[in-house]
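Please, structure for the following, as tokens.
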Amino acid sequence: MKKTPKRFDMFRKPIKPKWWLRVAECVAAPFYTWFCNGHVKTDKEVRKLKSPYLILSSHASFMDFPMLIKGIMPRTTGFVMSVEEFRRGDWLMYGIGGIPKRKFTHDIVTAKHMLRYLKTKKTSVTLYPEARFSLAGVNERLDDALGKFCKHAKVPVVLFKAYGNFINSPQWSKHPYRRIRQEARISLLFSVEDLEHMSADEIQAKIEQAFERDEYKWQVEKGYRVKCKKRADGLHRILYKCPACGVEFKTKSAGTRLWCEACGAAWEMDELSRLHGVNTDKGFPHIPDWYNWEREEVRKEVVSGAYRFEDDVRVEDYYSTPVGLIPVGNAHLVHDEHGFTFHGEVNGKPFSLNKPVSAMYSVHIEYDFLKRGDCFDIAADDTTYFMFLKTAENYLTKLHFAQEELYDHYVRNKF
């Protein structure tokens, strides 16, 4: 009989970064940021802070990590990271101060780990509140409980905010790098005294305001040009709906062009990442405007009750670092006002799972994850399932919009 693999242990206590890995980071980070044209400014207020403090960081690409490390050197920090990142090795991820988290869950295990890290380890913690890479170079929504956590932690709160990281390596096409200048600033967001005199709601509001950004607008204002001949490759992954004919999932992209296979409308991306109609006057020159228009279209479907998505999925289970992702079965997915509902067969047994709309304010998506296909992940009990879409093409961005709009319509707006 085949032995069942051991599950990832969420209750394992994180450790302070190993000194030798910290030395390696301090050596590698400045070189890597120099090579990738990364520039970090750390305010004097932050330099004067004594550890520990909580770092809230924007999240657009891998460059966030070395730029942050360079910006706080010689100080150290732990990092809150998704459990599947530990597939790279427990010795490495725990060794650099990794604190595991299952995305978009309301568990308190990670919060307890963070508080223990701050209070007993006396070490700073870096949190990525958006819990995903930005999809369109603009800020994604944050957990509503962030203000409460900051107030409860009672340590200074620092903001790391970067521009250019997304343009250099967008989530919809991470390679080749666009070789654009990247700039970050590390500033003090709240002192302990600020937190004492502000309500959790006031703290939350200021954090959300601080995270507002638009990398495409920043690029135009700075005049930083992208010479990469493949700068539009993969753009159709987020711009999936044609504004000329209204058809979804028929857009394609390559080189410096985006086009619709349904009506033939085409757009050219210039070196400042603006879109120009080739044979149409419809569309959006500013990519975030197109992205936000698609969200509005999904919102209309949700409000009218018309939204519903079905597809078959391949289910892969993330067990632990030694095992990694394992294909465990197949299921049929329905996504609607009842949330994510799955029925199928997993590990040779009938499989049924429902994640109601109220359980997730968003959903984490991955384009061609590990070159295994488009997928999204669902946390359930003591594991995380990665659901790979079988037939639906280029649906992930709409799925992401739909879950957030369903949550707003049925949960957030009810209060």
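The radius of gyration is 22 Å. The chain has a mean pLDDT of 94.
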